[in-house]
Amino acid sequence: xLGSRWAAPNGGGNHETHIFVTHYHWDHIQGIPFFxxxxxxxxxxxxxxFRSKFLGRDSLKQVFxxxxxxxxxxxxxxxMNAKRKFKExxxxxxxxxxxxKITARxxxxxxxxxxxxxxxxxxxxxxxxxxxxxxxxxxxxxxxxATGADILINDAQFTPEQLNTTRKGWGHSSWQEGxxxxxxxxxxxxxxxxxxxxxxxxxxxxxxxxxxxxxDSVFAASEGMVITLGETGDNVQAxxxxxxxxxxxxxxxRAKVTGVTEGGKEFQEETVVRDISLQGALISLQNMPRLQxxxxxxxxxxxxxxxxxxxxxxxxxxxxxxxxxxxxxxxxVVFTD
Length: 337
Ligand SMILES: [Zn+2]
Ligand SMILES: [Zn+2]
Description:
This protein is 17% helix and 35% strand.
């Protein structure tokens, strides 16, 4: 999805890109051979990862080569025309990329995993996937990594019950551990990440609901989600695509939507909200709102006694696609309250 968006206007594609690889398990490397920007000559990639004791020097480069060896892939690595540079980092390393300071720390995971802290002028993002609590030294390493983060992306693969029983030792965490950590280190927004492949979207909704009862600002990561760091004190704006089809309820709510168009004009429109989840909705609109602008959505919902009641929600525009009806756009919104 990122590869396809790369070339789109405002798609975020850059000629020079830095990619942090946390470790070499399949779920973290499988997309690499399919990432189209790696085949474009003008692109330049800098990869950061650690030297695995199982692979030795140039571990990530070896992983690339092995993944693309025939007959696992139709072309070998020489078909990748982008410039690629590999840098070995390890837990405790700190370095800068332009105006950003990067810190890497070891996390508790089989065969090792690095978490990354990225301090930018707009705020600090911590990417701490694949970690299991319970190792005092590595727990401390994670706490230091996450201290004061504006956005903390943390492993939330298992339920707290699974983590204590059948999935103990698998190298993952839960929403509850994430909330505990976020509180302890004063992180502002928590993103639940690394969902279990066996968790349905409804189950992810349920984890998110529980997490929100205990922590103010929590999102469940979804494919293609973009989070923009604003000025200090600004709300985090979450960018969620309308891709999680199974999560959507087959419900329709009449709604009134107010917002700002791309051209900067205020608009108000009546429509129906078709797809709604705990976190967001997909709304069909004739007006074209501005990406990441705020929308007010007032929905008519059937009350418990069968009477209509209305629900007022504030959200951010996170995705705009051509809608199923002519002249309409499908607008993805993440609700923030
Ligand atoms: Zn892993
Ligand atoms: Zn993983």
